[in-house]
Amino acid sequence: MKQFFHSKCDQWASTKRKSWLDGKTTIAFVGEFSAGKTSIVNRILSQDDPCIPRLPVSTKATTAIPTYIAGGQTVSYSFISGDSKRKTILEETFKKVSKDVLDQVREEANSFLSGISILDTPGFSSNDAKDKERTLEVVNECDALFWVFDVNAGTINRSSISTIKEKLNKPLYVVINKVDTKAASEVQKVEDLIKQTLAEEG
Known about the structure:
By secondary structure, the chain is of the alpha/beta class.
């Protein structure tokens, strides 16, 4: 009971330090590497408006560390340093920031972010155990999680199932992404298999 109490207190304190989350519903996009999490976040942010800045997307692991996107009065980029201080950086630096930084924060004047903060995360298939640990810490501070599957993967791997069952403790929604790359019948097969696998795994 004592351990549970301390854990909840630590989680509350960590969240309160993140001013960009205060009073907002926070959602996280999680899943395997290259499932298209950042592309979904960009779609939510931009709503097809080419003037709205987007997060960088690549076939490589572009989201090396958890990245928050929240509404603000102006556009700004910052990170949380090792001594838990928030420091502002240039946009160019933000796009090149190293994996040694704990969190990234981006605030922008965007009506689609009213009352909400979005967390974009590295893929859980990363070989870096610290990346995974960092990601798990921040995603479980969120109000809801969206697990993104690439339809081309065809199914859920054992590692994903293990992470979902053992590590995540918030409401979880499933998104099957990149459905435009498959015939509708193939997409339906993948959806049915994912539903069946998740049901069998409880």
